[in-house]
């Protein structure tokens, strides 16, 4: 099982395998379509460090089921690295022939719950592995929701019997943008279903907040992370970093912050950084 | 409104500034188009306009990031965030990209950016967009075989051009408009070597540019040596003409075509 502090895999890590193994407990790999590319990128890490797989394009909230070839590619990657679990976003990004790379929040309705749960259950069966769903950032939700976001997520998790990849930065940004109390969200989530966290730095541009995965995690995000570690059974923190990064050393400062939180609330058997 | 209808409408709204404008300015037309009842139309109009417009830009920017951002980055850096957002949304009008078609639309986008520039910046935008279109053409043009004609010529994968600004400003993306305007007319020379869709840019000097220009098509070594000799004299270079040619041969920038002996 994956536990400890991990980081989203970047190509910049290739050639720094020893350093990576020294500092992280697991890697999170964002799914790529071609298995050969996955093998080429992850080769030195497979069997050396636990790897969980993060999917980006299944659009589980869409009416249409995910494309078979995407599910098959995901299964091949998950099998290759023997992923303890696979995660995907609780959102939609596709309708008919239209597809975007951004995630749109589902309306918080029973129909949306039924649709996404159906796709999650089918995916679980195909992959033969646990599925985690990630809360997405959103600045709008279709009017007419009958549940709060937290209540909606709880119902999906319980009905599909899956876990939550809680993106703490997304929660923070949503709370700031929409204007709700993040603790009321957290209190609606079943505490035993929070299995993995995402944390990352964010940016502000013209008064709008962006989940830009930069370096430097906001202290308020770290405070929420502490709350989660203190109040749920979550045992895996993952740092996401897409920019401000040329080598693995650039993520060490954020790793230290997360390691300190992890050690404070869990057995400090993992290596101190 | 069913989930399927909501998703179809929301996806369409996120890629279509025309539709979002219609929704907020002429809601009845949008309602007719999507078959919305009055109640549903009211629900759709509750979506925050500014947020939807920002999301449209986020969708476009992410698509650009995946396929074409390196080829528009210099142009966009001349604009503020709000200007970029407006330019992007204006470009998307009438172009509903159901999939990510930015790579195919890139040249049109750069032309659009140049055409939209305020008069005082028109020349700057024309130059920078021309440079980025050239980069894109270098990266996407199909590999050409070596000419049949024997001789020495610029390698097919190598591109070069002159540019009316110091090349380091362009290569290093130091694109402060005031700085560029101040240095306008200081000709820079840039060498471009595409590699698997990526672009490597190098600064070259005028002498190198002229030598490369002398062998766009295969020439005999004697002709190339004569050109190098003329250039070395003209610029009073402290190097032998042969060394100048050998450097470019060693770096595979100039190559020998079929049948030409590599030796002197």
TrEMBL record, chain A:
It holds the Pfam family MbnB_TglH_ChrH. This is Uncharacterized protein.
TrEMBL record, chain B:
This is DNA-binding domain-containing protein.
